[in-house]
């Protein structure tokens, strides 16, 4: 592990701070002015500059720094701005600065590979070394299982996973978490209240909602979340997510259409929630939920699908910098029965965001 003076993450934070204070020929720029130019929050700028445990900016934010400080034209008038076109000399200055900043960031990531101090910042599914992760799945009700003999432990062909709902989400998420955390123990457990006590104090990942996952229902009683999932007493009920916003109750429901006498799902709703674990503040609890199973899968794919996970992670880290808890409700398009990964950077896909 590098000393504090040699820590590349701290070096990058100091460099960004010095650019802001001295990078324009002695012109001191405030965090508020820089945040306005970048279109981000002041706490996010502060998190990149702080002298203890700084956050690593994503690559496109370092490019913004390099663009902004490559030319005095960025501060010629107020509000300060990011230019879209640079002259030859300005472009050369940008390239040089960007190379320096990227080098510090890459060194910080290399260091993180050794001591795992900063790894969680670039992937919300990366957890600190040697900290257990427990994925808790919804269990299918007995009325669904009664025709599946392989769910009976006495059956020679018994398969424990046959009892679980959301198997496509479990397969996708378990593989991603194991690949991202090769030295952590990752467990899969049923969402019943018989879950062993030690699992509650690990990093908890809950798949599915209040209908079939009792652990999700129990956790929602213990966290301050202004979003409620309507229970579906009968499989024919649609249900929805309820949000109180500006004193008014809003309900977000999936979109179905009737085709040849049956209901076809065109759009589900995904709910992604992350906070500290109320049973162990040094661990996290994450909920991936939906009205139907495709909503659960959409919540998972948002941060595992390689085409979208980078931009969605950046959106969450930028949007909720400095927050201990956050929640995103998003649309999940379903085309010919297949789930289309939600893009959180598309405002049309975002139904509701909350943080504290």
Short overview:
This protein is 33% helix and 22% strand.
Low-confidence stretches: 114-121
Integer tally of domains: 2
SSE pattern, N- to C-terminal? HHHHHEHHEHEHEEEEEEHHEEE
The number of helical runs is: 11
Strand fraction equals 15-25%
First-residue to last-residue Cα separation: 33 Å
Whole-number mean pLDDT = 88
Which range best describes the helical content: under 10%, 10-25%, 25-40%, 40-55%, 55-70% or over 70%? 25-40%
Main sheet specs: 9 strands, mixed
Q: Got a strand count?
A: 12
Organism: Lentzea fradiae
Pfam family, one: HTH_31
Domain HTH cro/C1-type: 16-50
InterPro entries: Cro/C1-type_HTH (IPR001387), Lambda_DNA-bd_dom_sf (IPR010982)
Fold and architecture overview:
It comes from Lentzea fradiae. Residues 16-50 form the HTH cro/C1-type domain. Pfam families: HTH_31 (PF13560). This is Transcriptional regulator, contains XRE-family HTH domain. GO terms for molecular function: DNA binding. The protein is an alpha+beta fold. It has two domains: 8-121, no CATH class; 133-355, no CATH class. Helix content is 33%, strand content 22%. The strands form two sheets. Strands 1, 2, 3, 7, 8, 9, 10, 11 and 12 form a nine-stranded mixed sheet that branches. The protein has a three-stranded antiparallel sheet with strand order 4-5-6, with no helix packed on it. The chain is elongated and about 75 Å long. The protein starts with 7 loop residues before the first helix and ends with a strand.
